[in-house]
Amino acid sequence: MSEQSKGDLSLVALTKSFATFTAVHPLDLTIPQGSFFALLGPSGCGKTTTLRMIAGLEEPTGGRIRIGETDITDTKAYQRNVNTVFQSYALFPHMTVVDNVMFGLRRRGDKDAKAKANEVLELVQLGQVANKKPTQLSGGMQQRVALARALVNRPDVLLLDEPLGALDLKLRRQMQIELKRIQQEVGLTFIHVTHDQEEAMTMADSIAVMNAGRMEQLGDPATLYEQPRSTFVANFLGQSNLLRARVNPGGTDDMVTVRAHDVDLEVSREHLPDGVGDVWLGVRPEKLRLGESGGPNHLRGIVRDVSFSGVATQYSVEMPWGQELIVIQQNDGSNRATLGEAVTVSWAAQHGFALDASQDAEAGAELVDDHG
Amino acid sequence: MSWIKRHLITFAAIAVLIYMLVPNVIVAVFSFNDPAGKYNYTFNEFSTEAWTNPCGAQGICESLGLSLQVGVIASLAATALGTMIAFALGRYRFRGRSATNLLIFMPMATPEVVMGSSLLTLFLMLGVPSGRTAILIAHIMFCVSFVVVAVKARVATLDPKLEEAAADLGANPTQTFLRVTLPLAAPGIAAGALLAFSLSFDDYIITNFNASPSSITFPMYVWGASARGVPVQVYVIGTIMFLLALIVVMTGQLISSRRNRQVA
């Protein structure tokens, strides 16, 4: 009944359109077998629709879904060897925990359903509550039952739809580590949908950032953070300072100079998109230093805000043209600046990145603070 | 004085309960009477005669049997139909949905006399003979509305994600319905079925319009008998029905309170 195909999951021009809008524009994506993959984006970006299409709960309007060599696009949800951990958990309230976990195995007529269910319940540390009803458990325990119910079937792909969204912060951190441990232990392909960029970066091997039904960028967490290719990614994953600049002609093989507000600044050529003249020059707040660093990139400004948080101090430094740059200084013993002080802000050329200036500098920024 | 004040609500509750239960108590008491004349209105002498011979009055058990039969068939049919209608109305958006919603309420709002007479007119026009079949059709018709209301309330609280989860775990549509949807909707369906049974068992007006001399239901028998003097057996059957209803309700309460205690 279920497909016993093994291999990478590939989405080929997968599309979902509704009468009035397109939820997912043609999406091409290959997710390697055994990886922990995150679909990251704000609400309404199409990540959950993509997940539901993989699960078979939503019918794509175009494109194909393949696992290994097998095309599963036209199969029903119950025929796919793909299981989902739902955001609301969707545990069956009239069944005990162990019956919930056995549900999938029983549908396939598995003789060892009970033994396998108990084994998985041990893995998620819930052996002692096997005979309770889901409503008798705490949110965190229910979450683990939902995970166990999906895991026990050893699906080709396990889908997690904002699985930690309903948990409080402390429990969420704990479950992030737990989920990662379990994924490594069982070696299944996990696809994790989330709007929490920190969660995605902590857990996933690679992340696809989605926005307005399109994939903005695909990569491992470090690459996405260090070399965002759009202002949306630069703002949605952490904070960015973006300076309007124009690329100067020439430059060396490694370095290019750009002119921002009458100051010449350097940026690595590999961090500059091809064929653009006007750019946003981006630098992460923690890459900025107060004081001269001997490099070519420095700007002068006045400290307008200081907030000390123990491990670090965050400054807001006003530039002569009115823009405020955010600087995060680690509490490593270096001198702290005071409010109203005139300071020099500097950074190493390889820490900057340039983005096409035709984009909105604020894209994605307003979406970050909404979430915990 | 302050003691009375503090327990005012208790007194009020007891008074209301007495008001509601006195008729049942009277019925139970008079079921042990040995009436002097043909009317069972004054307590004459204690007797278990009617209890040991409940079918003693002529035609009483035939009418009871017919009422039970009609009640069971009508409530089963109405529950099956009503459950399907409730799922359709609760789950799907279709043309004429709100009109259907409204029409379902019509039999509940229509006076029974009007409905009974119009059904009789309809049956005469269509050539459906009066009697058991006509009664059944009429009962199923008005019971459906009540089942729909009871089941729809339950369906509205069902999380559609549960059905998605079942499908996701490999259950085909039939298995999903039997193992997830139906068990979860069961309390609403059971409530609808019980309501349908008691409405059917109880009905006099609509039944009377569509009955024939060979199809006398229990309410019709009691009504007919009251002119000549109600036999004590009617009181016995009334008491038994009351106790049965009490047991059903109490069992239901017990199950749900036990379930709640598990949850807490």
TrEMBL record, chain A:
InterPro entries for the chain: AAA+_ATPase, ABC_SmlMolc_Importer, ABC_transporter-like_ATP-bd, ABC_transporter-like_CS, Mo/tungstate-bd_C_term_dom, NA-bd_OB-fold, P-loop_NTPase, PotA-like
Keyword tRNA processing appears in the UniProt entry: no
Database matches in PROSITE patterns: ABC_TRANSPORTER_1, ABC_TRANSPORTER_2
EC number: 7.6.2.11
Enzyme class: translocase
Pfam families registered for this protein in UniProt: ABC_tran, TOBE_2
A GO CC term assigned to this protein in UniProt: ATP-binding cassette (ABC) transporter complex
Swiss-Prot/TrEMBL catalytic activity: ATP + H2O + polyamine-[polyamine-binding protein]Side 1 = ADP + phosphate + polyamineSide 2 + [polyamine-binding protein]Side 1
UniProt domain ABC transporter: residue ranges: 9-237
Molecular function (Gene Ontology), one example: ABC-type polyamine transporter activity
Keywords noted in UniProt: ATP-binding, Cell membrane, Membrane, Nucleotide-binding, Translocase, Transport
Keyword ATP-binding: yes
Signal peptide: none
Subunit structure: The complex is composed of two ATP-binding proteins (PotA), two transmembrane proteins (PotB and PotC) and a solute-binding protein (PotD).
Family: Belongs to the ABC transporter superfamily. Spermidine/putrescine importer (TC 3.A.1.11.1) family.
Function per UniProt: Part of the ABC transporter complex PotABCD involved in spermidine/putrescine import. Responsible for energy coupling to the transport system.
Protein known as: Spermidine/putrescine import ATP-binding protein PotA
Organism from which the protein derives: Humibacillus xanthopallidus
Lineage of the organism: Bacteria, Bacillati, Actinomycetota, Actinomycetes, Micrococcales
Gene: potA
Automatic annotation (TrEMBL), chain B:
Chain segments annotated as transmembrane: 7-32, 72-90, 102-128, 134-155, 176-199, 232-255
Keyword Transport tagged: yes
Domain ABC transmembrane type-1, first and last residues per copy: 64-252
GO BP annotations, alphabetical order: transmembrane transport
Gene3D superfamilies: MetI-like
KW Aminoacyl-tRNA synthetase (keyword) present: no
Protein family: Belongs to the binding-protein-dependent transport system permease family. CysTW subfamily.
Protein name: Spermidine/putrescine transport system permease protein
Source organism: Humibacillus xanthopallidus
